[in-house]
What does this fold into?
Amino acid sequence: MKSYRKELWFDIKQRREFINITPNINQCLTESGIKEGLALVNAMHITSSVFINDDESGLHHDFELWLETLAPEKPYSQYKHNSYEDNADAHLKRTIMGREVVVAITNGKLDFGPWEQIFYGEFDGKRRKRVLVKIIGE
It folds into this structure.
């Protein structure tokens, strides 16, 4: 069995962002040479997420509104965590959206359903953030 590991770094410009990282993961898969196995993709920050969904701007807007309804950023004073930071909402949003995804690899390709793409979701950005890619298989 082969194993491949790579960290992907992103310069996040806004507090919240959704980035389609599917092309990055496909590049990692090519580099790995693995044809059958599993790809793990996980956020390496407690205020970010990796998830699978459709790459459609209206849906991303809906995610933003829905997450802000469930865990509004402001007022900062509503969260006990915010005594030293102002990112309690980001921790909650990450919990909702999840930490990682695992995707089957079949015939050297990510084995997706229709429209599925991998996204990095950032909820407390404006700095460099990273994602871990771990691919195992033959």
About this structure: DSSP finds three helices and eight strands in the chain. The mean pLDDT is 97.
